[in-house]
Amino acid sequence: MSPRRRTSVPNQASGRSPKPLPQTSAGLPPALVTSIFDRLDAMHPDADTELVYRTPFELLAATILSAQCTDARVNSVTPALFAAYPDARALAAADSADLEPLVQPTGFFRMKARALSGMARALVAEHDGEVPASMEALVALPGVGRKTANVVLGHALGIPGLPVDRHVLRVANRIGLVHTDDAVRAEAALCALLPAERWTRASDTLILHGRRICKPKPLCDRCQLRPDCAYYAALSPAAPRTRRTGRS
Ligand code: SF4
């Protein structure tokens, strides 16, 4: 099996957006939203999760380990972890103390070892050792929040999901796609702006844009979104804009 894989999308019933929340998107014309995400795609054609995995179980474990840690560091520890514990049954049989040395480089290692152990035991007890393909079941697992669940749904299970991390929040707010620092509200707003089949890639491109260009100190001169970015417009009020009108 390929170390990274993107499976086909649909099953939109399971990949539905969060429950309705107060509208936080900017009421942008659909064609402009499409254009913004098309340009993000063009700027980051390689966008995908950078976590290396072979199965939904491995991606779930790797994503739990990625909290407050770089993907590269997670990828440095998961080969040994998955060699020793290749599936949920093997991991469930381990003591969390046995896992601690393996995950120590990812930080918060005692908490993460407990989360991995609890997650695996719940998979065995409640899902026959398999990763469930629904948001509700995933977030009921120990150590699994909405962001982790969306990563697994979108990348390993072929179900649309839009993970929101700090990069997604920063970039989406700067562009003006959302107006909130709340991850659940931002997820709902972004999902409302896009067809379900674009959710996962939208998150991947926003994350890469935040890492590479729209950093905390943004590199706007390298960004194709300047004409439609609220943050850039505020910095450069004389700049030509297509925002909202769709015209140059
Ligand atoms: S124009 Fe600047 S602030 Fe706007 S998305 Fe691009 S890099 Fe970020």
Structure in words:
By secondary structure, this protein is an all-alpha fold. It has a domain of 88 residues: Helix-hairpin-Helix base-excision DNA repair enzymes (C-terminal) (Endonuclease Iii, domain 2), CATH 1.10.1670.10. Helix content is 51%, strand content 0%. The protein has twelve helices and no strands. It is elongated, with a radius of gyration of 19 Å. It binds iron/sulfur cluster. The site of iron/sulfur cluster has 14 residues, from α9 and α12.
Bound molecules: iron/sulfur cluster
Percent of residues in helices: 40-55%
Mean of pLDDT: 89
Q: Would you report the number of β strands?
A: 0
- The proportion of strand residues reads under 5%
The geometry reads as elongated
Keywords:
Endonuclease Iii, domain 2, 12 helices, mainly alpha, elongated, binds iron/sulfur cluster, disordered N terminus
